[in-house]
Amino acid sequence: MAKVAVIGAGSWGIALAKLLHTNGHETTVWSIMEEEIRMLQEKHEHVDKLPGVRLPDDMCFTTSLADAVRDKEVLILAVPSVYTRSTAKSMAPLVSEKQIIVCVAKGIEDDTFMTISDVVEEEIPQADVAVMCGPSHAEEVGIGLPTTVVAGARTEATAKKIQDLFMNDVFRVYTSPDMLGMELGGSLKNVIALAAGMADGLGYGDNTKAALITRGITEITGLAVAMGAHFETLYGLTGIGDLIVTCESKHSRNRKAGMLIGQGYTMQQATEEVKMVVEGIYSAKAALALAKKYQVELPIIEEVNAVLFDDKPAKDAVRDLMLREKKAEHSSLEWGDR
Questions:
Q1: What does pTM read for this prediction?
Q2: What burial letters (b/e) apply to 220-247, b meaning 16+ CB within 10 Å?
């Protein structure tokens, strides 16, 4: 049994806390919001973000970051990506040398274009920072539906420790050394999911969705490989796997926000309706900036940015994608003409 703390009491943090407790670990959940902790202590359920998922009576809930962090073998950092740096700054004086921090949020920092793990390593250099991601909606993990994810770390030993911590008969964990590829796949798929949601909101069909998913993973892979990630990662669970579930699922906040925008909502109206952080909105700008830096063409992501930030109608964005110049699907393939 390990002593673990989940930093962040959103739907994903709560689902993982329940999973860890089920695996026999002593689990503490932290939130900065007193009313949220009071609700969890009294009801043992997050009635707003994960209703119906009952939490054990002996699970600890606290607003004290010091109590949550100190003397824990592993910390699960589950705050939304936009709050990662501020939370990490607060954690830094409390984290011991080589204490493991597993980043489970998905996103790219808006102004620095850093991945979540890079942000945490910058703020807490003494920590052993790792990541965990893959096709995994909190609503399904919370009720024990079979799920498979990947643990990424700087060393195989750390990745295997995370694997052992989480893995059980309904939650399978693979390991990978490619943290960059995992995080880029997990972040950029949210931008493509916004596009998929816009297509749904416009009333388009399966053909459109299949095209967005397929061309979307091509864009994600092109940028990730240019940045130093591995091709195989993007065609695994944390790339195409995560992209499929986020573009298709009723649980996906990014798809839902995109669908509302496709129906005519503004970006602000859509995010207010979703009532949760829509990570893809923050990652979209960063993806476009990274594309320019690494000279990679990302037409879908460019159009998503135009819809989000330039008030371009989603229907016009789809039309412009369809009318791009003619190309071969794979430029690396050679013709066998004689």
A1: 0.94
A2: bbbbbbebebbeebbebbbbbbbbbbbb
Q: What 3-state class would DSSP assign to 246?
A: helix
The per-residue pLDDT for range 20-63, each reduced to its tens digit, is 999 999 999 999 999 999 999 999 999 999 999 999 999 999 99
250 catalytic per annotation: no
Tokens of 113: 């274009």
Contact predicate 165/20, CB 8 Å: yes
What value does the CA radius of gyration of the chain take, rounded to a whole number of Å? Answer: 20
Q: Mind giving me the DSSP string for 130-143? A: EEEESS--HHHHTT
Tokens found for residue 54: 């009952």
Which stretch of DSSP H or E encloses residue 7? strand 3-7
Q: In percent, how much of the chain has pLDDT > 90?
A: 93
Residue 122 class from Cβ within 10 Å (0-12 exposed, 13-18 middle, 19+ buried)?
middle
Contact 287, 269 (CB under 8 A): no
What would the 3-class secondary structure string for 177-226 be?
Answer: CCHHHHHHHHHHHHHHHHHHHHHHHCCCCHHHHHHHHHHHHHHHHHHHHH
Structure tokens belonging to residue 1: 């049994």
| Concatenated DSSP letters of 21-35 | HHTT-EEEEE-S-HH
The active-site residue out of 18, 106, 161, 189 is: 189
Cβ atoms of 62 and 68 within 8 Å: the answer is yes
Sign, CA torsion 274/280/283/285 = negative
